[in-house]
Structures
1.
Amino acid sequence: MKTKVNKLTETGSDIDYVSAAVSASVKSFRQQQKLSLDELSRRAGVSKGMLVEIEKGSANPSIAILCKVAAALGISVADIVNVTADPLAHLVAEEDIPVLWQGDKGGTARLLAGTQGPDMIELWRWKMFPGEQFASPGHPQRTYELLHVEQGELTLKVDEQQLQVPRGSSAVAKTAAPHSYANLGELPLIFTMAVAEIHS
């Protein structure tokens, strides 16, 4: 699918509208696999009501929900938002890079590019303003994240372990466990992140 995707935002309790392309992608992948909404709900651990709203284009799912739905369908989040690479090379234009999280102070998480699932690699760029944070309940087993801080300092927490990652430094995390990213400093935080999910 090569439908252009509008940018998404996640704004806490506010519900924004997910793009028609994302809703069409979820519905298309589900129908290709001949899955009912009930079965996808069971596999993903996401309510049937939420799936109905996603497919109608009237809900804006969080990154965590998109990850669960993608894993249940055996695809990547990049497949859902149409930033996967075709063989041998594929350009994702700047205006087609979706914003999948927006902090309450204007921070963003952009999915720059990704490979097709289920064994997938994604490249993200995060910007967080002081006081912003993002938490994830965890990804499937054998999910790894590689992070590099370009500006500011990242507070990375994985389960009970917490790391301070200053500018110019990198970190590696196994993120099947609950984890979070936060900017507890006084300057804007910018970091890039590669996510690898390995099933085979």
2.
Amino acid sequence: MLSRPSPRGRAPAVRPAPGQEEGRSRRSTAAARGGGLLLGVALLAAVILAGLAIGTKQIPADQVWSALFHPSGTANDAIVQRLRLPRALIGVAAGAALGLAGAVMQTLTRNPLADPGLLGVNAGASAAVVTAISVFGMTSFTGYLWFALAGAAVAATLVNALGGSRSATPVRLALAGTAVNAALFGYINGLQLLDLGTLDSMRHWSIGTLAGRELGLLVTVLPLLAAGGLLALALARPLGALALGEEAARGLGARPGRTRALSIVAITLLCGAATAVCGPISFVGLLVPHAVRPFSGPDPRWLLPYCALYAPVLLLGSDVIGRVVIPPYEIEVGIVTAFIGGLIFINLVRQRRVARL
């Protein structure tokens, strides 16, 4: 017996299986996130070009290209190669380091207001630099570099020890970091008040700037930045498990104590090296993870690469803005990032886009 055709002569629609719908959704999300990374690369290239072309003297894009790849010894070649290119490269490296350190810190502590300074890295670096200036008479940025790195490492180690080392909890780390920060900044302020020469020298470093930094400083700290960046990216999966809680992380095969200790090492290398070269720059490590999380999602495997791309965009963009606001003078990038970062962060909070961790 023949079956009746459907009323309209059409075969019934076949719905995809739930597994197929889930697979399509995952592929679509991955494609969108991949597109966001490509956009980050394009924006980073644009701000690098802007940083090479814009300043007290405007240089056309074709002359920037010629200075980079076909130099002829002109004044524009010298400006691009000796002044603006080192500034741009240091900005890329420092911005990526601060963005990665901020994302790792917020994921590690499950605290949306955490930034690398919570571990005492900035305070430790500043305390070491002020000691170098006041006690040892240090005057060069190269000398500041090693003192800042050592101070950052000592402060982070102290916070980790006070927080319980491998048994530390996010709350204990935050409390230990707050206490160490308060003590170190009290020491810094006291030493500056006792020695006005130290205060005058310290303000040039502590304001946070990319100007006047030689490429040799970046070459010196590049191994530390590379080691910290690779370690942070390698910890993406265990950090994602740790964000679910201690018990869930252990159930997924992660080792919370080891992950926490290695994360602190990565943060210290990244933020300590960036702070040593540029001085303490605020809001980059705090803001960028919040700004990109609606697009990258909370998974550190996506969040960390997003932060590594978009943090240099914020830092270099702020540096370019600081050059053009009140020409022929420049506003230091640390001031601009604090102002822009504050405005953007307030906007994110008002729109309730700050993701819960």
3.
Amino acid sequence: MPEDSAAKFDAVRANEYARQSRIALAGYDACHELTACMLAAHLGHDRPARILVVGAGGTAGEIIASAKLGPNWDFIAVDPSEPMLELAQRNIAEAGIQTRVQCMLGNVSDIPAQEPFDAAVMIGVLHHLPGAQMKADVLKQISIRLKPGAPFVLAGNYRTYASQPLLMAAWAERWRLHGASSSGIEAKMAKILQGADPPVSEEAVFSLLSAARFEAPLRFFSSLFWGAWLVQRV
């Protein structure tokens, strides 16, 4: 994630992230848990594995769930936002798995590619990257750090928000369901839209993945604009 995208995730946003993200994404915890389940189904839950987690700052839900399923899995977690990475580290420590997770402040391109990973995860990042080229670059950087055949879980918003006004209205109503006022809803929706640039369609996601040498996309979770897919490195 570039610095200007990462700057949105400051200390204020980090402090409210755990609650706000679970409202913004209906099924937030289910997505993270299913990510762990998909990895375990592909890798085998009892086999050793090194897993790269890109944009790991926040709840670290995908790491915590995966560590429960894969007792022999280790993780490298990278994020360019220091407040968000610190939040993840606190949650990882509370889960008692800090010896299995190496947290790095920076971008995926900062991680050496000489020792390829057995799997990778990137949740909630792609739609914050402006332009198709930046999205393609991040996916390529992940791809070259994976073993052939390795699974990669990608999750985030797809489809332009303006293309689905009914989904946008439902999204706003979800905030109302959780007690937000009309002015509060406007503020929340404005924050969601701030700097967001989701791929225009699922087909666009698949095209980006294919160009980065990923194949066989399988969507295993969906929620309004959000999708989660498992693919394999060619």
4.
Amino acid sequence: MNLESVLIKLKKSYDKNIPELNAYRNKVYPDFVLDNRIEKLVAEIPVFTFHSIEPVEFEKQLQFLAINNYKTLKADEFYQMLIGKKPIPEKAVLLTFDDGWASMWTYGYPLLKKYGMYGVCFLIPGIICEEDRDYLNLDDVWEGKISQQELIDRDKTEQPYCTWREIRHMASQGTIDFQSHTMYHSTIFISPQVADFFHPGFDSYAGNHNVPIFQTHGVDNVSRQAELGTPIYTHQPRMGGSLRYLDDEDLREKCVEFVAENGGEDFFSKSNWRKELHQVIENYRSKFGERGSYESQEELEKAIFNDLVESKRLIEEQLGTVVQHLCYPYYVGSQIAVELSEKAGYVCNYWGLLEERRGNNRVGDNPFWVARLSDELIYRLPGEGRKSPLEILGRKFIKNSGRLVAKLV
């Protein structure tokens, strides 16, 4: 990984995590996070967010919950408590897992079973594969079939997500409750302004999540496998509610052809490669004008609604369960997405930290605005082994930055 890529990743890490430090500084976290004197939760249910699971740290978090007698909930159980149909236990939490990473099968599922706990996993059904093979997990280690060192970390392989076979098995055991994270976890272009170009150092992320969905011959290319030189316009998560900008495919092709004709991947070794591609765009638009277009409000609403309906339908079809809970990718939604999710049959929408809620979820709160906290804040729950906010957030920043810098050496 080159310096530019690391710096981009560091900035993204900073942009993603700085709201947590600001939230602590501005006192928009729940009282149990801010005040060491809080000795118990009172009529509230903290919801914590995980992504890919690190087994050692995750087991420590489960041990903390177990030692302090916290009860983990399932999604429908949480919803019933939120609307007042079931009483809230003093020590109840909801553990949520976004995306359906393979580590859910490799580590999360076995460890949750080990401690008799539950999790809610928000799937992206449009990118899940069907495979016949059984991948190894911690159960195989504990049964003596393989050593810990032989356990493959699939997050670094060509198959970073759980398969339908694994998901069906986990769902059948009742340990993990699978719900919706939208159909494709997509972002869309929202203006003709170029933010970047697809290049060898572009952070496409697993499943090409960081590449906005674009059209090929007028049809959405949901795989998002962009060619070198593809313009990346300013973009936003699909559920954010902005009108989608449909880029000029001919202009895109001009940029791709220019890169191919000028060395392909070697073209990006030039210090001014971006300037050259911007010049291609300027020349094209001076001749043909700006030929991109925007979807209509009606098309926007239809696209969001169809995404939510199809995601729900596909998970239900695969698992034989009822899907009623939606989590917004990137923690970004909109009022129109909320309204359409209810129309599509969802009863709960999950976000990130909601400042107006201070991260709390209490009886009577709107279930379409569920606030979630970073998983590190589990250690701020009242109980034995509680950690300070500085220890938690400082360690997180150091860890994330250290990983990226380490890729340079």
